[in-house]
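Support reply, case 0932

Customer input (verbatim):
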Amino acid sequence: MANTKLILFFFAFCFILLRSTAVDIISVDQKVTDDGNDTIDSSGEVFQMGFFSPGRSKNRYLGIWYMKILPRVVVWVANRETPLTDTSGVLSVNSIGSLVLSDGTGSVIWSANSTGSVGDNTTVAQLYDTGNLVIRNRNDGDPTNFFWQSFDHPVDHLLPTQKIGFDFKKGLERYLTSWKSPDDPAPGNFRFGINNNGYPQLIGYNHSNVIFRIGPWDNVEFSGLRFFQPDQSFIPDSALNKEEIYYRYSVPNSPVVVRLVLSSEGVSQILSWNDKQKIWASNLNSQQDICERYALCGAYGSCEGSKAGAGGDRECSCLKGYEPKDPKNWKLGNWSEGCVRKTPFSCGKGDTFFQFIHGKMPDTRNSTYNTSMDLQQCKTACLNNCSCTAYSNIDVRQGGMGCMLWFNDLYDIRDYDGPGLPFFVKAAASDASSRTKRTVKVIVPLVAVMVAILLGVFLKCVRRNRLLRKKGITDVKGSVRDNKREELDLPMFDFVIIARATMNFSLSNKLGEGGFGPVYKGTLEDGQEIAVKRLSKQSTQGLDEFKNEVSVIAKLQHRNLVRLLGCCIEEGEMMLIYEYMPNKSLDAILFDPELSKTLDWPMRQNIICGIARGLLYLHQDSRLRIIHRDLKASNVLLDHEMNPRISDFGMAKTFTGSETQANTTRVVGTFGYMSPEYALDGTFSVKSDVYSFGVLVLEIVTGKKMGRYYHSEYSPNLLSYAWTLYEEGKLSELFDSKTLESHDKSEAFRAIQIGLLCVNTYPEDRPSMSYVVSMMTSESELPRPTRPGAYNFKSSDSMTDPLTKTWTTNSISLSDFGPR
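Our regenerated output:
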């Protein structure tokens, strides 16, 4: 039962009866006119209906939204393709009982086109607490008997109890279609729904092109999909028969509001409302990593999610019995050609199967299924069909039931760790036997070779550890294991290679220096440019920070995080090797009077959004929840396209399970970017990073540095000055208006307000990074910030705590002091 609750996908679909609670909207001979006040008198417990104008648009639409949740979230739109251009809209039930929306001239803009209704005073339009708008006979005792319902015509949202799929009796196909933009609810480029070619499955499209796919439903979960479980139980429900094919979900007896939305950018998400923090928390994102791209690895290729984007030697691998079709391009990371059989099928008893246990099943559009066959019968059927390439059960319950057969090439397979139905891929029997023969031939000499290698490694380790102990250093991997951490799979570079790449650590190759030590630019023999962080003998940081950065960043995989290529522990040296960022750090450009002029608003906005996405990944989407604890401009690097990469994870802390907060007596970071609760009490959480992000946003927008900015005795730092101008409605004074076009100012003002929200005094008042990303990518109304946590603090380059403990300066990122 516990697994059932945790498994549900992106749309764990279910069944409960519609609630009978409903509010009458309108009946025959009644009319409602758009008076510009948005809301029709339709308030129920959960949803509200009315006229609205989305974002910056002046067009008017009839829609449904959550009643008590702000900013407003519209879940259904009637006239999405035919907007009203003014407030002349009139909603009525006509003489045949159909719901009609007309403009000021009486022309019909939109109609529900209900059939079977009778145009008398018993025909009404009602809004249910489920968000379903229905047309029905008021006197009918069956609340599920409708002439028409909005649930049959979804827009971009799927709500609990709402079906997605096919109703063959009614001739309906229900699927989600994205808005064209946040300002325009007209149908966009993206669509999400059930494809019933072969075994039914959920697929996301950009026009007619598949962009992501959810593995087939096995009556417990969707194959290959994992997501963050909201704080309630999902009840799944599905149907696959001659009358219907659908998936749906419900959250009965739960106060948590859950919705599934397809954004105008083509991203599908399951979101749950956190009423305490007033934010939408993301439980699943259809583009959470590179393996979500459809058929990334081509035919018979499997995307290895644990390695994807993490700096591993590959993201794709061929299934057993198959090899790359184009080995050269495969090694270069071009996997589109996929894999081919090592040995052709013999078509019959000469073939065998390799079991694929933990994975997302292949695309089922080239499949057939039979619900009555067992697994052995399924295997026999596949062996006897020369075109069959794989087989599996279709129902995981009761030990597995039914049979699914794949034909032709297999696409869009993903490897992951977790439960689920296995599938069996056909291969030539010779592949299995040849593997056994090769194993026998090499096992004896291999043992001898391994003994020699292990002896050599042992002697080398003894020598290396002697050298490291001279400097007080022990083996990093061993130390990590002693701390009960996972052993790292990280390339180790030879000292000679790094020395040669950096011209023997030449001063001309030196990029800068931080608390860890100097950083050098290098070029490997294959031409790859690298950045080498070398631990200084005089450094106040040492083994702990080195281990921490290696153990944290080696597991990260995101385009807005710097990539660690490897490390070097040799000749008494400790070095970290990163990908080289040609535009160096953000502070080098942002706070330079001349270079900062090259940062126009779109570039600054892109940098802010990139940092936000990187933090969101650390806080929510990575395998472990990670708190950076030292986010600042100098720890944001810029690649060749000026995209931001968060770096320097020496101070980072990881959390597992439900951990969200911790205390420490060793407060580290940079003064000015520290949240009040962390600087004073040693309490840190993801909201500590949110505070640092808020400071950074204000710096990026204004070009002014937090730690060295003064304006007056009444505004001793950037935060208090920004807050004062926000209160007085004078935000334009924060920056040089010449650097912004007139149409950019509103976006810059919005960014400043988001920054102020992030630096609220109390952690619970700060938004999560998921809400920050949502605010930055929408035009919804923003909450009002409160006074910043550092409002009355006067910063300087060197500060001393009243308890005589040393604070860090804005150029060094480490210090020890006791909390108050």
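We compared this against your earlier run and they match. Two observations from our side: The chain has a mean pLDDT of 79. The chain has 14 helices and 45 strands. Please reopen the case if you see a mismatch on your end.
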